[in-house]
């Protein structure tokens, strides 16, 4: 039986349906190309009937990247006036899945609710492009976004980074890289259930083996692909960073049924010890990305209300 005890009942409904459709979850599909296509097909089915948001305009643009052309998607609020905040957006997918479409609706929602200019980076994926490809792309996206603040129409003093899962780990890594390389000053950092520790030694990383969304075996596999046989450092696996001083105010949340629970809570405690202002939220009953798979659940709405309130305060 799948490991579904303790999960919020509303949030469990789509997870149970997924488990019926793909016993064991996405990571039981051995071929990465097929796994990506399966995820893309599921997300398209979930969003096919949703109308476009008239409050948000989008534009894909090619910018210079560290390995050639890099595509970003720019989200512009249509009803906002005056200087706007800016948000670099980094999609999830365990470093091996995802693209600009994967978290598109989340980027639209953030743009609309925050009246913010959002720039999403289509970073390179492993195993074809192991570390440091993804973080180099995300940092290039941040540098480009900050350099073009005037043209994009946002206030560079109100620039933050948002990312979920692998995107959360990359958000932290991008902030570390910006700190260490005289990059843009950041007003805020929001890594949600970030993927940050390649060692897989915490209790939660050992306990979550059969949820069906992001379990131990899939996490170990993804880290191996992402690192490509190279040792991890603070940019590929931010939990390994020894100096967390100088990072921007940070908001982290994670579910108590998420494999990343322990590494995220420990990282938040280390940020606090380093003098970084931190909000840490643990959501009882939430599994990895449960608010994505069960968006209408009361728990999911609570999770998003808390995030949006924090972003609005930080980027005001």
Describe the protein in words:
- The chain is of the alpha/beta class and 316 residues long.
- The chain has a single domain, classed as Alpha/Beta hydrolase fold, catalytic domain (Rossmann fold, 3-Layer(aba) Sandwich), CATH 3.40.50.1820.
- 40% of the residues lie in helices and 21% in strands.
- The protein has helices at residues 9-21, 32-47, 104-114, 133-147, 149-152, 166-180, 203-207, 216-227, 261-273, 290-293, 298-315; strands spanning 56-65, 68-77, 84-90, 117-121, 154-164, 188-192, 250-257, 278-287.
- The protein has an 8-stranded mixed sheet with strand order 1-2-4-3-5-6-7-8, with helices on both faces.
- α4 (133-147) packs across α6.
- The chain is globular.
- The mean pLDDT is 94.
Shape: globular
Radius of gyration: 18 Å
CATH class: Alpha Beta
Low-confidence stretches: none
Largest sheet entry: 8 strands, mixed
What is the fold named in CATH at topology level? Rossmann fold
> Which structural class best describes the helix and strand composition?
alpha/beta
Fraction of residues in helices?
25-40%
| Count of alpha and pi helical runs | 11
Q: How are strands sequenced across the largest beta sheet?
A: 1-2-4-3-5-6-7-8
Tell me the total number of β-strands.
Answer: 8
What's the number of domains? 1
Q: CATH superfamily assignment?
A: Alpha/Beta hydrolase fold, catalytic domain
The CATH architecture category equals 3-Layer(aba) Sandwich
SSE succession = HHEEEHEHHEHEHHEHEHH
- Terminal CA distance reads 47 Å
Summarize model confidence as the mean pLDDT.
94
| Strand content bin | 15-25%
């Amino acid at each position: 039986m799948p490991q579904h005890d303790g999960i919020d009942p509303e949030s469990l409904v789509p997870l149970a349906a997924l488990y019926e459709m793909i016993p064991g979850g996405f990571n039981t599909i051995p071929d990465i190309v097929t796994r990506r296509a399966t995820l893309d097909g599921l997300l398209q089915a979930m969003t096919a009937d949703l109308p476009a948001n008239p409050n948000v305009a989008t534009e894909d643009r090619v910018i210079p990247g560290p390995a050639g052309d890099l595509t970003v998607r720019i989200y512009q609020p249509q009803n906002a006036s005056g200087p706007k905040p800016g948000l670099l957006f980094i999609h999830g997918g365990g470093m091996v899945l995802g693209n600009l479409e994967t978290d598109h609706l989340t980027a639209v929602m953030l743009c609309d609710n925050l009246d913010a200019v959002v720039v999403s980076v289509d970073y390179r994926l492993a195993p074809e492009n192991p570390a440091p490809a993804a973080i180099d792309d995300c940092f290039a996206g941040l540098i480009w976004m900050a350099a073009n603040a005037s043209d994009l129409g946002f206030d560079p003093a109100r620039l933050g980074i948002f990312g979920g899962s692998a995107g959360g780990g990359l958000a932290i890594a991008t902030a570390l890289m910006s700190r260490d390389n005289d990059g843009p000053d950041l007003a805020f950092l929001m890594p949600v259930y970030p993927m940050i520790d390649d060692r897989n030694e915490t209790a939660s990383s050992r306990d979550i083996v059969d949820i069906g969304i992001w379990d131990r075996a899939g996490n170990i596999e993804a880290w191996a692909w992402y690192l490509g046989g190279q040792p991890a450092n603070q940019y590929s696996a931010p939990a390994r960073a020894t100096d967390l001083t100088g990072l921007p105010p940070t908001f982290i949340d994670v579910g108590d049924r998420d494999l990343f629970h322990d590494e995220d809570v420990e990282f938040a405690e280390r940020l606090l010890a380093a003098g970084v202002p931190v909000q840490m939220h643990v959501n009882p009953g939430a599994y990895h990305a449960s608010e994505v798979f069960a968006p209408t659940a009361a728990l999911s709405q609570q999770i998003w209300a808390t995030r949006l309130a924090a972003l609005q305060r930080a980027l005001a």
